[in-house]
UniProtKB/TrEMBL annotation:
Residues 5-119 form the Response regulatory domain. Keywords: DNA-binding, Phosphoprotein, Transcription, Transcription regulation, Two-component regulatory system. Member of the two-component regulatory system CutS/CutR, involved in the regulation of copper metabolism. CutR suppresses a defective melC1 gene, encoding a putative copper-transfer gene, probably by altering copper metabolism. The keyword rRNA-binding does not apply. GO terms for molecular function: phosphorelay response regulator activity; transcription cis-regulatory region binding. It comes from the Bacteria. This is Transcriptional regulatory protein CutR. CDD domains: REC_OmpR_CusR-like, trans_reg_C. The modification 4-aspartylphosphate is found at D54. One of its GO terms (cellular component) is cytosol. It comes from Streptomyces venezuelae (strain ATCC 10712 / CBS 650.69 / DSM 40230 / JCM 4526 / NBRC 13096 / PD 04745).
Length: 220
């Protein structure tokens, strides 16, 4: 399962898409919009851990987006971006309710670290290690072992396995896996879940531990 769900709100589309791509490579689920009106629409229907919010946005200003998030009492954390490095601007942004502030240009490693830090403050603490059917999964170290032998998994394979293990034997539908392990950029009509489960089964080895429940989904 992704460890942080992020909404990137930035009207410079190349920058927004680059940030989103980088965060996805860090196993985060990321949605992108390019104006404040679209941002308000998304936060109204989706639960985000962190909103990376450019301050100077078209249609609805970033300040107003931040105010609305605060007014709604959402647990979402706001990392505000601005082209201005002036201290007074940073203070003003924080007074609006932003949780953190990052001036442009910024180092991507710093952005990632700040997003993760804010995500930890949003999320409920997770158990250090999940264990089931001879498999140990460490969400913090992002490590998987079967019968003491480490299994190397791609980020989405790890995410699917984590969702299945957290279900504690309950059946998880393909739709639920798609919702929890991917973001809205994924076409719901693709066979990405089935392919990922097949690859995950192969990597975990014999005997198979992931059971397909016809017409319902998967379970461990």
């Amino acid at each position: 399962m992704y460890d942080v769900r992020v909404l990137v709100v930035e009207d410079e589309q190349l920058l927004a898409d680059a940030v989103a791509t980088g965060l996805r490579r860090e196993a985060m689920a990321v949605d992108v919009v390019y104006d404040g009106a679209a941002a308000l629409e998304r936060v109204g229907v989706n639960d985000y851990d962190v909103v990376v919010l450019d301050r100077d946005l078209p249609l609805v200003h970033g300040d107003d987006v931040c105010r609305k998030i605060v007014e709604l009492g959402m647990p979402t954390r706001v990392l505000m971006l601005t082209a201005s490095g002036d201290v007074s601007d940073r203070v003003e942004g924080l007074e609006l309710g932003a949780d953190d502030y990052l001036p442009k240009p910024f180092a991507f490693t710093e952005l990632t670290a700040r997003v993760r830090a804010l995500g930890r403050r949003t999320s409920v603490p997770l158990p250090p290690v999940l264990e089931r059917a001879g498999i140990k999964l460490d969400p913090n170290r992002r490590e998987v072992f079967r019968e003491g032998k480490e299994v190397q998994l791609a980020p989405k394979e790890f995410a699917v396995l984590e969702v299945l293990m957290r279900s504690e034997g309950a059946v998880v539908s393909a739709e639920q896996l798609l919702e929890k392990a991917w973001d809205e950029n994924t076409d719901p009509f693709t066979n990405v879940v089935r392919v990922t489960v097949m690859t995950l089964r192969r990597k975990l080895g014999e005997p198979p531990v992931i059971v397909t429940v016809p017409g319902s989904g998967y379970r461990i």
